[in-house]
Amino acid sequence: DTGVSQDPRHKITKRGQNVTFRCDPISEHNRLYWYRQTLGQGPEFLTYFQNEAQLEKSRLLSDRFSAERPKGSFSTLEIQRTEQGDSAMYLCASSLGTTDGKQYFGPGTRLTVT
Amino acid sequence: AQSVTQLDSHVSVSEGTPVLLRCNYSSSYSPSLFWYVQHPNKGLQLLLKYTSAATLVKGINGFEAEFKKSETSFHLTKPSAHMSDAAEYFCVVHTGGFKTIFGAGTRLFVKA
């Protein structure tokens, strides 16, 4: 079990630029989640994959956000035309296909939009 | 609708004294409840989970939580705080499938 990894750990970008983050889940986990966490708040759900299918998207996920999970393994989260309000920690988590909700989190990618 | 309320944004204790972090939840279903801890620059780590097997749940690092359905509470406790317990703690409700809701967090400070 190598854990959930995320890359990059930090990203600084200028407003209007596009950014892409990667998440590698625990290998046998078929469920993958993206969350956003702003300072002083708990993580907020963004989107969820079961294998390669994106089954749910939060209303927080505007049209500038897109996520993929090709082949049901790693996932990418892209933000187009970044805005200062996108500055946050983006967390990825994975889990087995059980109903108890136990998720394993990666260290996160901290995005700063200047 | 499901929700989680952590009643204290900050808790400060002295090393060696008990810790109490309070959490109330609202759920239309029988929820799974969790406590996670987040140390600076580290990922969220699961402390413990409740899934209806027993109302008193033991977790890692000496933490416990008691599920009280009548009070819709799931408070986290530890008999004796250690300096290494200083971190952010999140109460979480999971209602099946993907839906996971985090509380706003409680920052625990431990004084020497």
Structural notes for this entry:
The complex is a heterodimer of chains A (114) and B (112). In chain A, 0% of the residues lie in helices and 49% in strands. With 114 residues, chain A is mainly β. In chain A, strands 2, 4, 5, 6, 9, 10 and 11 form a seven-stranded mixed beta sheet that branches. The relative contact order of chain A is 0.33. The model of chain A has no long low-confidence stretch (mean pLDDT 92). By secondary structure, chain B is mostly beta strands. Chain B has strands at 3-6, 10-14, 19-21, 23-26, 32-38, 45-50, 56-58, 64-68, 73-78, 87-94, 100-102, 106-111. In chain B, strands 2, 5, 6, 10, 11 and 12 form a six-stranded mixed beta sheet that branches. Chain B has a four-stranded antiparallel beta sheet with strand order 3-9-8-7, with no helix packed on it. Helices cover 0% and strands 54% of the residues of chain B. Chain B contains no helices and twelve strands. Chain A binds chain B through residues 3-4, 31, 33, 35, 40-45, 48, 50, 55-56, 91, 93, 99-108, and chain B through 4, 9, 32, 34, 36, 41-46, 49, 51, 90, 92, 94, 96-105.
Oligomerization category of the chains in this entry: heterodimer
Low-confidence stretches of chain B: none
Q: Count helical runs of chain B.
A: 0
Q: How many H/I helical runs of chain A? A: 0
Overall mean pLDDT of chain B: 91
Give the termini separation of chain A: 37 Å
SSE sequence of chain A, one letter per element: EEEEEEEEEEE
What is the number of strand segments of chain B? Answer: 12
Q: Helicity level of chain B, as a percent range?
A: under 10%
Largest sheet of chain B: 6 strands, mixed
Coarse structural class of chain A: mainly beta
- Order of helical and strand elements of chain B: EEEEEEEEEEEE
Radius of gyration of chain B: 13 Å
- As a percent range, the share of strand residues of chain A is over 45%
Give the C-alpha Rg of chain A: 13 Å
Q: What's the number of extended β-strand segments of chain A?
A: 11
